[in-house]
Amino acid sequence: MKRLPIEQLTPGMVLAKPASNPAGQMILPAGAELTEALIVRLQDMGLTSAHVENSPGEGGAPAQTLAELEQALDRRFRKVTEDPELMRIREAVRRHLRSTHSANAGAAGRT
Questions:
Q1: Rounded distance, CA 91 to CA 99, Å?
Q2: What pTM was estimated for this model as a whole?
Q3: What is the CA radius of gyration of the chain?
Q4: Residues 14 and 32 sit within 8 Å (Cβ to Cβ)
Q5: If exposure means fewest CB atoms within 10 Å of the residue's CB, which of 38, 70, 109, 111 is most exposed?
């Protein structure tokens, strides 16, 4: 079990503890499998983190494709598309994802 920031949650992860809103009301029970829609809803409800059973690197959720990572990036920046500084940050992160994803894919092919 690991507590992750809401931005690091990915579809397929399973909650290890119930997710509650800032007022303490349970939103999702322990054992709930996260979907993209549920993650967005948790963000919109003000959650900042969640306890999950399977986190990346622990043999849990499968690795995301570059397309999935870019979709998640766009979702995270969807409310600030009019801010040029934040769009530059988004594109810098996109370049980083592309460079690290291609490097990781090349390393996996050599093993």
A1: 12
A2: 0.50
A3: 15
A4: yes
A5: 111
Tokens of 36: 């993209």
Are 49 and 8 contacting, i.e. CB atoms less than 8 angstroms apart? no
The DSSP line for 9-25 is --TT-BBSS-EE-TTS-
The tens-digit pLDDT sequence of the chain (111 residues) is 788 999 899 888 899 999 988 888 888 999 999 999 999 999 898 898 999 985 445 544 456 788 888 999 999 999 999 999 999 999 999 998 888 877 665 555 544
CB–CB of 14/56 below 8 Å?
no
For residue 14, give the DSSP letter. B
**4 alpha-carbon distance from chain centroid:** 9
Per-residue burial over 51-73, b = 16 or more CB atoms within 10 Å of its CB, e = otherwise: ebbbbbeeeebeebeeeebbebb
